[in-house]
Specification:
seven-stranded mixed β-sheet, about 45% helix
Length: about 600
């Protein structure tokens, strides 16, 4: 994969930013921003730009280390609110949730061995055309984000070298070695037997669960961890086990799923049961539903989707698939004797004051109003006539509808965040391409004008979607805005350099009023075989952001099948109005109006 080019034209970046900001500012606000930008370009901007170029000139990817360190590791907010996302699945492959958990662990290891250990990790393809660097796929499992007082550290343990997972059941954590004494991966049936043994042991001897502490702000969690280790050095061994584990799985024996809403909410809060520092937490419920949550620092959505696709392939599609007719496929994976180590329960030695704080923290996680979020999901039939009219630019069409729905709900246009991939570069991550454009605003205003002819509206929609496509493509080849300015802001903070312009922009990066993302759930050919209409209603959802302000609306959408899509919204639970459901109503209205527009035009 090619190296990520350095951003050498600061004036061009600032010009594009001003053009974007002009859409949502008054004349006076825009003039003030232009004055700040001019001062920045002529003074501190020059110095910061020279420092950035000098410091990153020998790097194949100058951005990823900066973004990982300061966009993630230096962030002091709880992981559950900033970089913790879920891939949900309530399609009932089996009524035996222990079999599903065993199959998931086995398939995950098989996918890792095939693609990392013996594979050459060639770039995968999006739509069989765009190469995507899968470098970060290596770090999807086996990762651990260690809390620090000022900045966290990332650790990664080879799953083959580690050889064990952590299993949580009835508030106890167990070390489960998934390789036998001869070095062979445990069979799915052997894994299921081990999980069943852990469930029985945990019922007899419930333990102490420290997971709720991982929901603390990072600096506070670091201090609490040091306090626990200093109280009794034996606690360090338990922390080391979790750090070195391949992943954590939660057997939620007491958690009942009554609605899909319960799963959607669990994706975001985990009920205080997930060990957020681990890169992967697999959560399995007695009804067969499951949620795989991943910590975002070590890898982005494309890498996690690649893993998710491969896991489902090995579970359900491969010639030697692990699951068959709701059971472990004993024809391919028969029971045979394997000698393995006994599961080991992690022990914690805590003072009364720490125990009291743990109980308080668990209550706080469950009752914290900032985690009491409203989640709403709806499925929609894609408007075929509209997709054809906009030359297949489906993402642009959905984003235009999102802009219109937001305008109907709030009465204004606002700055938006939508990530696009930089994975076409070596070790690439993401860039924001600010999807709000003048052409989208023009279209929305035409749709609000009852006297505007449909022909003009359709032309405006076509232009809005085309502009969206080109803006996204330009950002993919690193002609974006935000990551360049973010890097300059990092240097300005480090050098204690005052800049009103960069401070204003830097504070906006994670607080856009409208946060949107497309969940990439059909990237590989394997999963295209797997998706059927009835299953699309059960698979997903992932990638949505957590609202960091009371006003923020977070929207995620994904294309389930050639004819079906899903929209997932999340807002904070404030006031009497469910803002998530309100946004969904406006989205459906706007979608129907677009369908009506094309229907009326066809009649003419």
């Amino acid at each position: 994969m090619p190296s990520l080019p350095q951003p050498r034209n600061l004036e061009s970046t600032v010009k594009k930013l001003l053009s974007s900001m002009k859409l949502t500012l008054t004349s006076d606000e825009y003039d003030a921003l232009c004055e700040e930008a001019s001062t920045f370009l002529n003074c501190e901007g020059k110095i910061l730009q020279e420092m950035l170029i000098s410091e990153t000139k020998n790097s194949r990817n100058w951005l990823t280390p900066i973004w990982t360190k300061y966009g993630y590791l230096a962030n002091r907010e709880p992981l559950s609110k900033t970089s913790y996302y879920g891939l949900m699945n309530d399609y009932k492959f089996s009524d035996d949730f222990l079999s599903i958990a065993a199959a998931r662990v086995y398939s995950m290891m098989k996918a890792h061995i095939e693609n990392v250990v013996v594979g050459d990790m060639e770039p995968t393809l999006i739509k069989d055309v765009i190469p995507v660097d899968c470098h970060s796929y290596r770090n999807v499992i086996g990762g651990y984000r260690e809390p620090g007082e000022c900045i966290d550290k990332m650790h990664w343990e080879s799953p083959i070298k580690s050889g064990f997972i952590i299993v949580r059941s009835n508030s106890s954590h167990y070390v489960l070695y998934i390789y036998d004494c001869d070095g062979n991966l445990l069979s799915p049936l052997a894994l299921r037997d081990a999980l069943e043994l852990i469930v029985e042991k945990s019922k007899e001897n419930p333990g102490i669960d420290l997971s709720a502490f991982t929901y603390l702000p990072r600096s506070e969690w670091a201090l609490r961890m040091n306090e626990i280790v200093n109280y009794d050095i034996r606690n360090k061994e338990s922390f080391d086990y979790i750090r070195r584990a391949i992943l954590v799985i939660n057997l939620e024996t007491e958690y009942r799923i009554s609605l899909r809403q319960d799963l959607l909410t669990y994706c975001r809060t985990g009920n205080g049961n997930q060990w957020c520092d681990k890169s992967i937490n697999g959560n399995f419920f007695p009804d067969g539903s499951n949620v795989v949550c991943y910590e975002h620092t070590s890898s982005d959505g494309a890498a996690n989707t690649f893993l998710y696709d491969n896991v489902h392939y090995f579970e359900n599609l491969a010639p030697d698939c692990v699951m068959k007719n709701g059971c472990i496929n004993e024809d391919r994976y028969p029971r045979f004797n394997q000698t393995c180590l006994e599961p080991k329960q992690l022990s914690w030695y805590l003072s009364d004051s720490i125990l009291n704080r743990l109980l308080e923290q668990r209550k706080a996680v469950i009752n914290d109003p900032t985690t009491d979020i409203l989640v709403s999901e709806s499925f929609f039939t894609k408007p075929r006539a509209a997709i054809k009219a906009v030359n297949g630019h489906l993402d642009g069409l959905i984003q235009t509808i999102v802009v219109w729905a937001y305008y109907r709900m709030t009465g204004k246009f606002d700055q938006m965040y939508q990530p696009t991939t930089l994975f076409t570069f070596h070790e690439g991550r993401t860039e924001n391409f600010r999807p709000l454009t003048q052409s989208k605003i023009d279209f929305v205003r035409m749709m609000c004008d009852p006297f505007c002819p449909n022909k003009m509206r359709i032309e405006a929609l076509r232009k809005a979607c085309q502009d969206h496509f080109y803006r996204n493509r330009n950002a993919m080849i690193f002609n974006g805005i935000d990551r360049h300015l973010f890097a300059l802001g990092v240097i300005a903070q480090r050098e204690k350099m005052s800049s009103p312009f960069i401070k204003r922009i830097f504070n906006q990066f994670l607080n856009f009023p409208l946060m949107t993302t497309a969940a990439p759930l059909t990237m590989t050919k394997r999963m295209k075989q797997f998706f059927k209409d009835e299953m699309a209603l059960k698979l997903g959802t992932g990638g949505v952001f957590h609202p960091t302000t009371d006003e923020m609306i977070c929207v995620s959408y994904f294309i389930c099948t050639p004819s079906l899509g899903s929209l997932y919204t999340m807002t904070r639970n404030i006031g009497e109005v469910n803002r998530s459901e309100e946004f969904q109503k406006h989205f459906k209205y706007c979608l129907q109006e677009i369908n009506n527009m094309f229907s009326d035009t066809a009649k003419l």
